[in-house]
Amino acid sequence: MKRVTKRVFAAVMACMMACLMFVTPVLAATNNFSKTTVKLNAISGGESRYSSVTSGSVSGSNPSITKVELYCNVASGTDPYTIYVESPKGTIKSIAGPTKSGNVTITGFEGENPSGTWTIWIKNKGVSYNGNIYPASTVTITLKVAYSY
Q1: CA geometry: angle at 93 spanning 34 and 129, to 5°?
Q2: Domains plus CATH for the chain?
Q3: What is the pLDDT of residues 8-53, one digit of tens each?
Q4: How would you write the chain as a 3-class SS string?
Q5: What is the pTM of this model?
């Protein structure tokens, strides 16, 4: 009797495990990378130098960007500026730069492959709100790219 009970129990457990495998949704794995630019300086309506950051190893055979976030470490006294981001595919998007350090999300890269070299630069708006003789903007940006694969 004990043998039959153990076999029945084992069979029921195996059936339950198989059923769970078939009804549990399969979700795409996610990953991300994060890279920081050099200090970007722009003055009197000009552009900073371009800073290139590389994705490094990207997981999966078909990675796809789900979110691009920028952490902006803004120097005090920074005047208004625009951030430009170019993806490895060549897509360029811009966003108004924050006046205080913090995170901003930039859209328009969703679905692209994140692997390769990203380019980031800023452009000063040419207007001083801080009493500077020459409007100046200084920021260091950390690019964080989340992707599924």
Answers
A1: 90
A2: 30-148 (2.60.120.260)
A3: 666 666 665 555 444 444 445 679 999 999 999 999 999 999 999 9
A4: CHHHHHHHHHHHHHHHHHHHHHHCCCCCCEEEEEEECCCEEEECCCECCCEEEECCCCCCCCCEEEEEEEEEEECCCCCCEEEEEECCCCCEEEEECCCCCEEEEECCCCCCCCCCEEEEEEEECCCCCCCCCCCEEEEEEEEEEEEEC
A5: 0.80
